[in-house]
Amino acid sequence: MLLYLLDLIGVAVFAVSGVLVAAASGMDLLGGVALAALTAIGGGTLRDVLLNRHPIFWVRDARYLLVILLAAALTMLYITFFPPPGNGLLIADALGLALFAISGAQVAEVAGLSPLIVVLMGTMTGTAGGVLRDVMAARVPLILRQDLYATAAIAGIVVYLILQKAGAPRSVAVIAGVVVILLMRLLAVVGGMHLPRLHLLPG
To answer: Which residue ranges run through the membrane (predicted)?
Structure first.
């Protein structure tokens, strides 16, 4: 149930971010819905294909699509009358990243895969939808221009796995992993925290 709720909330939040990007890019209503869906289910779809999980999660359970439509419609209605919050996209994207990274990790964990694959699948679930969204909107993906993006997902999943290994309740491990990802993204966005840059010595 916890995994399912994380998935639904992550789908809703990423759908919101898809609509915000569509609006900023001047797309029409259909474009907004399409971008919302691509953002919300892109990462999970790629995960399911790689893990050979069939039918894919949103084909098996149409409630995911209903959540996308509802979240997209409410977001479109809101931005018709009110300007979106200044950091609305970054907040929605950070929350979606946190929820999807942990839920994706849980899917791989339930499948009995190694910790390394769990981290990779969770990170991909959290980041791939946003990459597809930005590519379709002709934007440089956030993962390439925002520090501590995929790194935040990896750190949160590692914390989740360590707590699970230490015997912590799953709910505690999930919350801790989500909080770590959100805090790292906040530090990156607000405080400019980033990994060391690569530098080439002059030849």
So the answer is: 5-23, 29-50, 62-82, 88-105, 112-131, 143-163, 172-195
128-175 pLDDT per residue, tens: 998 999 899 988 887 776 567 889 999 999 999 999 999 999 889 999
DSSP string, the chain: -HHHHHHHHHHHHHHHHHHHHHHHTT--HHHHHHHHHHHHHHHHHHHHHHTT-SS-HHHH-THHHHHHHHHHHHHHHHHHHSPPPTTHHHHHHHHHHHHHHHHHHHHHHHTT--HHHHHHHHHHHHHHHHHHHHHHTT---HHHHSSSSHHHHHHHHHHHHHHHHTT--HHHHHHHHHHHHHHHHHHHHHH---PPPP-PPP-
pLDDT at 198 (0 to 100): 63
